[in-house]
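Worked problem 6 (solution included).
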Amino acid sequence: MANKLTLNVDPAVVKAAKRYAAARGRSVSQLVEAYLSAISAAAATETPPPQLARWRGSMTGVDASDHEAWLAEKYGT
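Solution. The predicted structure is:
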């Protein structure tokens, strides 16, 4: 069973989306579901940027409380 999703969309965009969907024999819901599925799948398979790969592991052994103490000292909280 599908879940209902409420979106706020400009009326002109809704009208154009309905025309687009009808011309392809699909519903707007089907188009939105296909789009969300595609971007979700793409996000899951994207490789991290090279910068992130270089940084991964660079904070190994760092205690988060040290950073919190530094922030408290810097900003006086």
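Discussion: The chain has a mean pLDDT of 85.
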